[in-house]
Amino acid sequence: MQKKVKKLVDEIYPQLVAIRRDLHQQPELGLTEYQTAKKIERCLAEWWIELTERIEETSIVGLIKGSIGEKTIGLRVMLYLFKKKMKSNMPQFIQEKCMPVV
Fold this sequence. Notes:
The chain starts with a helix and ends with a strand. By secondary structure, the protein is α+β, with helices and mostly antiparallel strands. Helix content is 42%, strand content 15%. The model is unreliable at 92-97 (pLDDT under 50). The protein has one domain (2-100).
């Protein structure tokens, strides 16, 4: 199972990096992640991951179905941003708007 998951992650890794960079270039504050939710929803559809639920307007629940007799992996991603003035080489818009919480 680990080899199978690693192979799949390796295949989409460049796309995951591009998504992360895109989200960091266009941050949205907590509970206002409307564009982020749309992007994540499109990615799930592209990867054939079933969208099972929308909670409020910005939370998405997807389902990755495993085969009978195989282990199943659960994944939960939470995105939070809070306002904070930063000093960095990032574009001024991002410096003044918000900062990701890791």
